[in-house]
Amino acid sequence: MKVSLIIAVIWVFAATGTALLPMRRQYLPGVTLLILAPVLIVWLGYDFGWGWSIAALAAFVSMFRNPLRYFLARARGQKPELPK
């Protein structure tokens, strides 16, 4: 079993655990997972093929759609509201 797959499974469980936290406690682990995800997706693509990397990217965008929308709005110069 490849190390990248084991780390991906740990990442999935960490993301699930983060989603179960109250919103005010999700920020630090959520941002950490958000930063680590592209590295892990490229690593999975290198080990298993780019088709799996595209599937992992689709899952990542689906799970982190709200933070990605927030950062996209910030990059455009808008000031979106944060949930309370």
Describe the model.
- With 84 residues, this protein is an all-alpha fold.
- The protein has one domain (3-75).
- Helix content is 76%, strand content 0%.
- The protein has helices at 3-19, 27-48, 50-63, 65-75.
- Helix 1 (3-19) packs antiparallel against helix 2.
- The mean pLDDT is 89.
Write the layout of secondary structure elements.
Layout: H1 3-19, H2 27-48, H3 50-63, H4 65-75
Helix pairs in contact: 1-2, 2-3
Q: Quick one: how many beta strands?
A: 0
Could you describe the largest sheet, including whether it forms a barrel?
none
Spatial separation of the terminal alpha carbons? 42 Å
Q: Name the poorly predicted regions.
A: none
Our Rg estimate from Cα atoms comes to 14 Å
How many domains? The number is 1
For the residues shown, what is the average pLDDT?
Answer: 89
Task: Offer a concise description of the structure.
With 84 residues, the chain is mostly helical. The chain has 4 helices and no strands.
Kindly list the characteristics that best describe this protein:
about 80 residues; mainly alpha; 4 helices; about 0% strand
